[in-house]
Amino acid sequence: MSTAEATVALPPGFAPAAEGSREAEAYFLNMGPQHPSTHGVLRLVVRLDGETVLGVVPHPGYIHRGIEKMGENMTVLQYLHLTDRMDYLSALFNSHSVCLAVEQALGLGVPERAEYIRVIMSELQRIASHMLWWGVFGMDLGAITTFFYGFRDHEFISQLFEQVCGARLTLNYFRPGGVAQDVPADFVPQVKKIIAQTRRSLDEFDRLLTQNVIIQERTRGIGVLPPERALSYGCSGAVLRASGVSFDIRKHNPYSLYDRFDFEVPLGKNGDCFDRYEVRLREMAQSVRILEQAVTQFPAAGPWRAKEPAHYKLPAGAWFHWVEAARGAFGTFLVADGGAKPVRIKNRSPGFSNLSVLDELARGAKLADLVTILSTLDIVVPDIDR
User: Fold this and answer.
1) How far apart are CA 338 and CA 317, in angstroms?
2) Residue range 282-288: mean pLDDT, rounded
3) What is the pLDDT of residues 343-369, one digit of tens each?
4) Where in the chain is the domain with CATH 1.10.645.10?
5) Burial call 9-39: b when 16+ CB within 10 Å, e when fewer
6) What class does CATH assign to 110-311?
7) Would you say 42 and 59 are in contact if contact means Cβ atoms under 8 Å apart?
8) Angle in degrees, CA 319, 321, 324, rounded to 5
């Protein structure tokens, strides 16, 4: 095949190979865009030499909905429900970021009880998200049992979410100045039960999957991401911390009440798939640690929302606030001109940057390793396709 012919035949994103090289004899494989093949509707074009990956080009965009453009034609309160449809496993984090930016713009305070509710609900969502990821990760590698164990414990948290706000997935609960409604009377006892169950489950997860020799062999030394490369790609969350970079917005740029809690930022040493796996398990343990402190300090009474302004007209200017979501840094940038609707609204989600490293991590690995690597990046595609 000549260089000219290769250029015509190449899928978008690939450079032509030198004539006579191994790349010139390579072939291409589509993974996706069927939903079951990946973590969302994502197409991966894989360049292969036998079973060895020579390159990967992700093709998102299959479920792009123009959410940010829609946000320019509605009030910030109306925009909140759209954020639930980005990373639907981190719905509370997404809306929390918007609420913080609006509160910053309006100088709106948040009652202490509402802040504790936000922290508790957010950490429960972090645990629920990581549990779902853990179950799906095991299933990606052929360990079907983990799916049932992960969803068993995920269900306890989902049931509590349903009692608090009437939803199990797209949790439209946070509002500027607090939350939409107060928590039920037995909220704290139920959270304590979830804390105890999660502690038992994490020990069980370690015995069931972490110490499995097949899992160890399929994750250690696979998909190594050096810290400098993680930073250059703008990675965040467990993907960044697994490479040994200590950055957690809750700790290094505290918001809400996170400066009141004692917790650690789990770090990896090698930046491989196993480190990304282990960091998420340790993050669940730290979320439990935060929850234990929060339920102890939880105010028995008090307002759950500040006095709401008559109109959410943001003063002219620009504001940005971010939070530590389950997959990394999620931020909201607002530009207003004093009207009822924002002139521009832009979200910084962790998924796009984390997905960008896939090609670098997969080069030289086997096709089966590509599934492992993608799973440990913990991609939720609607977070990218906004």
Assistant:
1) 8
2) 97
3) 999 999 999 999 999 999 999 999 999
4) 110-311
5) ebeeebebbeeeeebeebeeeebbbeeebbb
6) mainly alpha
7) yes
8) 170
